[in-house]
Description:
Helices cover 74% and strands 0% of the residues. The protein contains eight helices and no strands.
Amino acid sequence: MMKIIKNSLGLLAIFMFILSFAIAFTINFIPMYAFDVDYFNIPERIGLSKEVILYNYRILINYLNFPWIERLAMPDFPSSESGLFHFYEVKILFLLDYAILFISGIASFLFWQYKKKTATLYELIQPTRIMVLLPLGVLFLIFLNFDELFTTFHHIFFNNDAWLFDYRTDPIILALPQEFFMHCFILVFVILEIGLWLVHHRTKKSLG
């Protein structure tokens, strides 16, 4: 029974480490946003150059990433109190993701070393095979109905309606189309899928 509990906690740590890494990578992968700025013709839609949009986006990302930046001030995008509050809540989620990444990374490393030392990595073959299949279901849902998934995500992580931006008071929302967030979701789960597959592949190699 203890072995099952240890393996379950260890696998959970590995899953959370890969997921939090995928999220951290995606939210800081500015080249994807730069691509989407052109792909969705954002400069033409809002009347600002790509350079100006990216400059303001980097200010936003820096605010969300660094706890010592306490005030968000995008020079070309005014923000309402409601909009600033939402970004503050997003900042908390960013920092929580980094904390999970750090803690689960240490736990994953210790668990993996223990399994290697005891030559019991083979016990993870079937569980990791199941873990590989999980993101595929979420990717299917993303393609099936992203609008509903996007709304559900906000209802889960935010207990208010501050995320419902009004472009007249928070024009930044025009530079952050929902399709961009769909690309973010897809990239997160692609990275997660690759990471889980690599873990599964490594457990299979342990059989020699």
